[in-house]
Amino acid sequence: MRIVITGGFGFLGRQVAEALLERRTFDGRPIDRLTLADRFVPDESPLTSDPLVEVVKGDLTERLGELFARPVDVVLHLAAAVSAECEADFDLGMTANLDTTRALLEAARAQSEAGGPSVRLVLASSVAVYGSDAALPLPPVVDESTLPTPQSSYGVQKRICEQLVAEYTRRGYLDGRVTRLMTVSVRPGKPNAAASGFLSGIVREPLAGAPSTCPVSPDTRVALASPRRTVEGILRVAEAKRGTGDGQLTGNVPVNLPALTVTVAEMLATLRAVAGDAAADLVTVAPDPAVERIVGSWPAAFDNTRAAALGLGPDPDFASVVRQYAADHAAAVTAPID
User: Fold this and answer.
1) What is the pLDDT of residue 310?
2) 154 is annotated as an active-site residue
């Protein structure tokens, strides 16, 4: 079995790759090759030393011939331009998110129509597909039957890609599955251009003894998932059998991964309780209307029934999320953890 991860050296790509390499199987079958495709490949990475791993570096649309030169069984499509940069640069978002996804779907279709294996393709989408429209406000609790009305370029691009995956699946060109990811917190490393990036920064930076700015009102409610729960959700949807029974994937409707709903104030209070006053006092609240508009358009409460049917659940509380980050990235934490 050959698996391709696009965005393979991004944050989630690395996490998913590590999870697959740890167990060496997918859907009960041994993995023969794990191909990590990314525009940016670090000079040194533990992933590249594994004999199962091969690397394809460069723009994805220019490397599809190389990726599909040998049969591909599974594609985990995690590569994307993120929310704030898509809002700032419309053409970047359309190219990186929409055009690249369409080209990937066409490559998978071509393999199938040439007599090769049908690709199982998993798209990492986002709750940014939802938004409150003046004619159709969001309900208090969102589920997969809620009509997506995205209020950002990123959300629109992800929604179009969801529909394309469903159409290519309906036509029999591939076996497509869509996971809608919650905001992942706490992400390690440097801040990225996502509008939601502060939801990691207001924890990550203070735990390292560095100041951080919160660009939204503390009463803002958000839907979060830890990295571990997010990776678990992506792989569970990817490996699920199709059918109508328990633990099976029904239809072509995207799966909203489980969400922990908290306010930013609760996040900051948890940081204070877990890491102390010195860490929590490093956070400054300075609302940014542009960020508040994007983040405020996203739903914060979800009905997780479909995810639960696949055996998935949300993080129990935000304290467990903070402690998970501190345990997994101890070298980046200087604050004492209670």
Assistant:
1) 95
2) yes
